Amino acid sequence: MAGHSKWANIQHRKNAQDKKRGKIFTKIIREITVAARMGGGDPNDNPRLRLAWDKALAANMPKDNIERAVKRGTGDGQGDNYEEIRYEGYGPNGVAIMVDCMTDNKNRTVSEVRYTFNRNGGNLGADGSVAYLFDRKGVLTYGPDNDDEDVLAPALDAGAEDLVEYEDGSFDVLTAPDDYTQVKAAVEAAGFAPDAADVTMRPATTVELQGEDAQNCLKLLDALEDLDDVQNVYSNVELDAETLADAPA
User: Fold this and answer.
1) Fold of 133-203
2) pLDDT per residue over 111-131, tens digit each?
């Protein structure tokens, strides 16, 4: 992975999400509710709920909202029953894209996802068409102003797998999904809170785009993320910092 614009990619994504806070809240609440329904309402015993809870706190969601979503999931079972579906496809220039959805109407969702791909220069693929290009990993991201050697020691002691450095000075600490929570807690306890952290689908290789190609890909990714039934969008695109600076957040 070239990764010269890693930090610019992270910052652009964060700024874009901040502008969609209402929609982000709705998606996190849905994830909390489903996680609590499937694994119980105690985040200490339910890793999926722990992750969703932490995302809610990172997004500055009021605690009352979080607790109501948990109660909805562990309550009498009333309300929408969401089905989890993953769609795979390609964006401009062969960029690999995976789209995770929660839906109460599969026909509506697949229609919206397919239309969004087609309208923005991509195409929906078959199951398994791009999934092999991604690995599920815990990823703790640090900006260029952090010292990787300081972070590495407590991370490794807590079970981290690797540290990946990028040309812009930022770096990622990688963990197995099951070790993510303990590694994150360990580095935070040591005074090295990450600038961004998640359990995500990390691409093994990336496709670098610039200029109009990059803008077209961003347009597709943003349109997919804007769909109500979409929870997460993963891609293997790597965008240069100059393009991101000119892109609308």
Assistant:
1) Alpha-Beta Plaits (3.30.70)
2) 999 999 999 999 999 999 999
- Cβ atoms of residues 133 and 236 within 8 Å: yes
Tell me, what DSSP letter sits at residue 143?
-
The SS3 assignment for 178 reads helix
Per DSSP, 88 falls in state: E
Could you tell me which residues come within 8 angstroms of residue 63 by beta carbon, excluding any fewer than 6 positions away? none
| pLDDT digits 0-9 by tens, 126-185 | 999 999 999 999 999 999 999 999 999 999 999 999 999 988 889 999 999 999 999 999
What pTM does this model have?
Answer: 0.85
Q: Pinpoint the alpha helices (H) of 90-137.
A: 106-119
Which CATH number, 3.40.50.410, 3.30.70.20, 3.40.640.10, 1.10.10.200, labels domain 6-74? 1.10.10.200
